[in-house]
Amino acid sequence: MLANKRDNSMMIRCALGQTLISQRAAATICEMVVSDLYGEDEYAAQAPVTIEEGEGVWNLRGSRVLTAGATSADRGPLQMRISKLDGAILSFTL
User: Fold this and answer.
1) Which residues pair with 83 in a beta bridge?
2) Can you give the pTM of this predicted structure?
3) Other CB atoms within 10 A of residue 60 CB
4) Which residues contact 12 (CB under 8 A, 6 or more apart)?
């Protein structure tokens, strides 16, 4: 079994203030994950997805609104935090 160890290359990039994940890349990661897990229709229902820049992260939020009478099976707006450094998904709710 391979270990999921990170080498020092990312620490060096971080120390230099470099990031690999642009706003566009974060949007693509979000779309791929939501579409793979819940289907393209679910991602479309979240549109538009807003992206705000945070300290070292991209904060993404879907625009789906739960209406009165929604059940626990109904999904609300997606929320995802993605690391600017390496694209790691730091949190994800839907």
Assistant:
1) 57
2) 0.80
3) 25
4) none
